[in-house]
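Researcher: Batch entry, complex prediction.
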Amino acid sequence: MSAVKVQVRDLDMMYGTRVIQKNLNFTVSTGDIFVIMGGSGCGKSTLLRHMIGLIEPARGDVYYDGQSFWDAEPRAREGQLRRLGVLYQSGALWSSMTLAENVALPIAEYTDLRPAEIREVVALKLALVGLAGFEDFYPSEISGGMRKRAGLARAMALDPDVLFFDEPSAGLDPISSRLLDDLILELRNSLGATIIMVTHELPSIFAIGTNSVFLDAETKTMIAGGEPKILLRDCRDPKVHRFLTRGEEN
Amino acid sequence: MATAQIDDSATAWQLQAERGPDDALLLRLSGRWTLDARLPVGAAVLDQARGRGRTSRIAFDAAAVASWDSGLVIFLRALAAEAERRGITSDLTGLPEGIRRLLALAAAVPERKDTGGARRPSFLAQIGTSTLEGLRGGRELLAFLGEAFLSVLRLTVGRARFQRSELFLILQEVGAQALPIVSLISFLVGIILAYVGALQLRQFGAQVYVADLVGIAMTREMGAMMAAIIMAGRTGAAFAAQLGTMQVNEEIDALQTLGIPAMEFLVLPRMLALALMMPLLGVYADLLGILGGGFVGLTMLDLGGAEYYQRTVNAIGLDDFAAGIIKASVFGVLVAIAGCLRGMQCGRSSAAVGAAATSAVVTGIVLIIVSDSVMTVIFDLIGL
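Model: Structure tokens for the complex:
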């Protein structure tokens, strides 16, 4: 059993008085590829936004390496955030900056490396996602798949412990999406990072997911969890089963 | 749990070079190989080794590395590239599994060389490029004006496609909602004109002519111009930002593929609204400006209210009003054209939306002032 990296305890999410999800409890171990799944509108992305510090939970907390995130002092929380990397759904690259400047910004902000050293780090990160030589391109000049990979290079800029992905394969063709899965897996294996992703791409879920949580929009809580392949085989809940088999009866 | 104990040996990187058989160089890495540890440069390591004999092969032993991050990968990548340039082979088997994978991944897609880096063009090329750019801008402006004119024609025969409810919303936005700022600015401009006039006219004991001065200046010139400049900053920029954002979100493409011309659906109601509202705002600004002048006349110049009113009525003719209203209508169309043109030309990034809004205001104000001078000369020639 590997060490617990991220823990979500008794988390309630609300927009105003509207409950999105309540009583969420799960742990993510170091090196997991953890999938947050569920139908559209069940609050998957909202849960992600709670975990990366964009929305404060109505109740409960998120723990990184046993340290409370929302209870922490602002400075400590900033330190925790620095250990996280996030790939947003459409890349969220800053459009007025080149790819190199996008990747360099977090490094320049949070380390005291010299410009020449930053250039080397940027070159490495872009090479890792297969974008060597695209340093001086603007996000608007490259394709959607490339933007996503550039976003991944930026998410990895500070060598994070935990990488978050919001719908990594949305808007990608099956082959690009498969290549991105391979890349995620490869980065997990070589960097030793923990990966948490929101997705409803079944091929991705089964190909790389090692653990998961299933959110349900009707009961407004998690109704299943565990390794997706085992979930498909053993889970008796009709909703989870329908999701994992695309609604096809067997 | 992380403990505060710091192991001295793990705080810095160490590199030992050993000569092996067959001109091999064995690099023993230990300690902390992270970015913030100021790691060595690959080429320098090879230079040092060359001082002690020929090298044809490099091997690594990284068993004693305490911790590493991208820094070690960067060091090894540069070292391997430099070694390859010098005809030395690198044997990576002694490195941790993760590093070997990362090095392979970084080399998996070769660097694109044909990406056309940012070469600085020559001076002549820059002149040529900006000339062509200017010509293209001119062509785009003409095409825009042509299309706008055609859509106005279609409007007159009742075939233009836009939503009436949208038109009313825009009318409210550019008309009623602009009243507070137009009131404030025109009232103050009236006060300023009255002050400047009074300073001069008092020398001749002719303060009472302040009413004439303010009345004529506001109706012929300042009412329309101030209202137009406010609208260029307020509404022209808003039009450019709205249309620019729609361009970024591909909303304009969505209209185009439905066969609905963006010119009719988006630009026409905006031009109509400003062309209709600007004369009204101009007249309103005239009134507020005259009130501002009257305020100065009554409080500072000891003129009577009835007297000021009478002088103003006598001074202003219908032709002054007509000149002001014609100008305001022209300004309205120009501000709308500047805003919509820049919005439609907007690029597909958030920075481009900002540039479009700025450019809309600048273009709008330039057009207002230039057209104002032209119209003033023409009105003088035809005696309006």
